[in-house]
């Protein structure tokens, strides 16, 4: 409503108020509004810069963690491959009967494995005296078997000496360095990690070892590729002594091998000392910000209990991301708003004109009406779902985003309680805390798992606040919800990828061992019953060799599906190696465990897998043991179960043995 609608009205205003009063009203209003605007601008710039800074850092932290995840996934494959070869039937046949035929079979098996995996520069089998019995050279993608006349004795090499005295199941991991041939660094440079594990004969005596030379250059190149998303920032990988393993300037790499003296620790001692003190974090120096995180290969590979006298006991890789100071400086942020400042000057002029008009016309009511309409449009056009209820919780308003999120129209929900969206998955404790908070006049922030009109579950992040009247009494509640369903799904997917064997759906070795250790600690403290079943599919290699690996994969999945049918929800099934699985059966004594194992064995024996119109039968050997009061850790339980499994295989397979 325009109060100044004609000249006479204006004259009345001028008569009623002197020019000085109008100017004073204008100055009070304008200076107040100017103060608010400038405060908001400064606050906006400050808050925006903080968000800009935090977002920059968060994006790089996420990128750094993604790079770390990629590298750890590369490492996890190595131990699994080593165990597959150590436990392969071909190697066992040669160890038990070292004939020319068995040797030729072993050479062929390792050559096929090298061609299939494509990540090992050398695969070797050495006997107990250090003599190379078989060596497969990758040869740039064309693996070949090294002539026996060219095989060497490696008993004086550090990896032989560190592996030969290890126990069954233990693995040696070498430091990451450059390959050396005949006392000289091989060129072009060839980064390498060596893994080795002892091999035992039928009498449990050391017969030799399998040694894998991992082509670590593949992992380092993936590191360089993954970390190149933002060319303004520099990523580099450093070992525990401060030497570059991978950086932008390749001439600075491998200082501890090439003896050129260049290292990150000597160039940036302040950053290096700070990074060594923590496993991850950020370090702010004059040159910018250094984000860092750490990879400990032994922990990643689950070898911390098998380290022994490894020179890699202290092996660590530090991943760094350097964000230059100018990239996150205040000036860099302000430059984004240069054109805005010109607009701001124009705005200030218009603001003065507006304030003068307001002071003269007293159009406060019109401003209020405009504000109300703006709020109404903001609610209806907001991408966030908004719901307003009365003080007992009955719905009085929902915006279009809320209708889209829930599938209900406003007519269907007005007057109803929001409990119609409850899925039953959110704890009642959450709702109790919600009502306690908002009834106290405070804002509640939290997450719900709800269901929409079609009973489809969805996740929201919500803020619920009370709306007060002039007397400060609660009249309504307003809830603002953000759909985070995709974010929750992605988080769950990442968690599943990190803990689950992708082929069978069983949990992977690392996650299974972590759960076992927790159960072991619980039993040491509180006592109780626990049994462990170790499974090994009999003659699984024959299935792979006869029908192919796709058939073998189907057998593995078939096995897991049938075992899961007989396990309780509280029991834990994991894939330990190629065709080796383990089940941790809680609160189960010897008799129950043996009955379960025998039932599983019989079920597997009676079932078959259909592959390419063929019915394929297979059997399983099972080693069973029970937690003893004398057991101090889970490793003792695994040792007995492994010995029991060995007896089951020894006495003819397709049987259950208990120790």
Our count of domains comes out at: 3
End-to-end gap: 93 Å
Number of strands: 26
User: How helical, in percent, are the residues?
Assistant: 40-55%
Question: What is the CATH homology-level superfamily of the largest domain?
Answer: PAS domain
What would you call the structural class?
Answer: alpha+beta
Largest sheet composition: 7 strands, antiparallel
CATH architecture level-2 label of the largest domain: 2-Layer Sandwich
- What is the averaged pLDDT score? 85
**Individual helix count:** 22
What low-confidence regions span 5 or more consecutive residues with pLDDT below 50? Answer: 1-17, 305-312
Name the beta content range.
15-25%
Please write the CATH class name of the largest domain. Answer: Alpha Beta
Q: Rg to the nearest angstrom?
A: 35 Å
| Overall spatial form | globular
Verbal overview:
Strands 1, 2, 3, 4, 5, 8 and 9 form a seven-stranded antiparallel beta sheet that branches. 46% of the residues lie in helices and 23% in strands. It is globular and about 115 Å long. Helix 2 (19-86) runs antiparallel to helix 6 (216-226), helix 3 packs antiparallel against helix 4 and helix 20 crosses helix 21 (590-606). The longest helix has 68 residues, at 19-86. It folds into three domains: 54-329, PAS domain (Beta-Lactamase, 2-Layer Sandwich); 374-492, PAS domain (Beta-Lactamase, 2-Layer Sandwich); 500-658, Alpha-Beta Plaits (2-Layer Sandwich), CATH 3.30.70.270. Residues 1-17 and 305-312 have low confidence and may be disordered. It is an alpha+beta fold and 659 residues long. It is built from 22 helices and 26 strands.
């Amino acid at each position: 409503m325009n109060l100044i609608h004609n000249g006479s009205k204006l004259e009345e205003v001028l008569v009623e108020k002197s020019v000085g009063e109008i100017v004073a009203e204008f100055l009070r209003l304008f200076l107040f509004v100017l103060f608010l605007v400038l405060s908001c601008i400064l606050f906006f710039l400050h808050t925006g810069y903080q968000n800009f800074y935090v977002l920059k850092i968060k994006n790089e932290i996420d990128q750094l963690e993604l790079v770390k995840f990629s590298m750890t996934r590369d490492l996890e494959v190595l131990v699994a491959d080593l165990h597959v070869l150590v436990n392969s039937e071909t190697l066992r046949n040669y160890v038990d009967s070292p004939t020319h035929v068995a040797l030729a079979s072993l050479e062929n098996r390792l050559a096929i494995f090298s061609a299939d995996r494509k990540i090992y520069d050398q695969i070797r089998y050495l006997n107990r005296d250090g003599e190379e019995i078989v060596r497969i050279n990758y040869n740039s993608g064309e693996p070949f078997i090294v002539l026996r006349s060219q095989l060497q004795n490696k008993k004086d090499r550090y990896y032989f000496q560190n592996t030969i005295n290890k126990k069954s199941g233990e693995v040696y991991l070498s430091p990451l360095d450059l390959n050396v041939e005949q006392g000289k660094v091989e060129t072009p440079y060839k980064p390498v990690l060596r893994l080795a594990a002892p091999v035992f004969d039928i009498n449990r005596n050391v017969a030799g070892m399998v040694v894998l030379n991992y082509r670590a250059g593949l992992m380092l190149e993936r590191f360089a590729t993954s970390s190149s998303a933002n060319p303004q920032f520099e990523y580099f990988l450093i070992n525990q002594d401060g030497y570059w393993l991978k950086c932008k300037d390749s001439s600075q790499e491998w200082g501890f091998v090439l003896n050129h003296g260049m290292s990150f620790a000597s160039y940036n001692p302040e950053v290096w000392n700070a990074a060594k003190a923590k496993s991850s974090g950020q370090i702010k120096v004059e040159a910018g910000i250094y984000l860092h995180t750490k990879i400990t290969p032994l922990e990643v590979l689950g070898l911390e209990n098998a380290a022994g006298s490894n020179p890699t006991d202290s092996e660590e890789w530090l991943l760094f991301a350097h964000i230059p100071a100018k990239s996150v400086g205040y000036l860099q942020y302000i430059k984004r708003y240069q054109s805005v400042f010109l607009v701001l000057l124009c705005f200030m002029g218009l603001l003065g004109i507006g304030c003068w008009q307001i002071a003269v016309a007293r159009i406060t009511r019109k401003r209020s009406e405009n504000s109300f309409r703006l709020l109404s449009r903001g609610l209806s056009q907001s991408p966030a779902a908004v719901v307003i209820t009365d003080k007992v919780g009955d719905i009085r308003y929902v915006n279009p985003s809320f209708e889209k999120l829930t599938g209900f129209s406003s007519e269907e929900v007005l007057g109803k309680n929001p409990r119609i969206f409850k899925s039953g998955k959110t704890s009642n404790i959450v709702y109790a805390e919600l009502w306690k908070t908002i009834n106290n006049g405070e804002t509640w922030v939290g997450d719900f798992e709800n269901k929409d009109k079609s009973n489809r579950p969805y996740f929201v992040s919500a803020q619920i606040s009370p709306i007060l009247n002039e007397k400060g009494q609660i009249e309504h509640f307003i809830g603002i919800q953000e759909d985070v369903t995709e974010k929750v799904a992605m988080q769950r997917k990442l968690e599943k990828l990190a803990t689950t064997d992708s082929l069978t759906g069983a949990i992977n070795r690392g996650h299974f061992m972590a759960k076992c250790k927790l159960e072991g600690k619980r039993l040491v403290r509180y006592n109780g019953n626990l049994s462990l079943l170790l499974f090994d599919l009999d003659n699984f290699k024959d299935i792979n060799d006869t029908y192919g690996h796709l058939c073998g994969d189907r057998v593995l999945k078939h096995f897991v599906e049938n075992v899961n049918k007989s396990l309780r929800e509280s029991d834990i099934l994991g894939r330990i190696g190629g065709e080796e699985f383990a089940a941790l059966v809680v609160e189960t004594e010897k008799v129950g465990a043996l009955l379960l194992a025998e039932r599983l064995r019989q079920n597997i024996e009676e079932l078959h897998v259909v592959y390419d119109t063929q019915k394929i039968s297979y059997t399983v050997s099972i080693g069973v043991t029970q937690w003893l009061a004398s057991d101090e850790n889970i490793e003792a339980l695994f040792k007995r179960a492994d010995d029991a499994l060995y007896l089951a295989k020894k006495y003819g397979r397709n049987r259950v043995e208990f120790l």
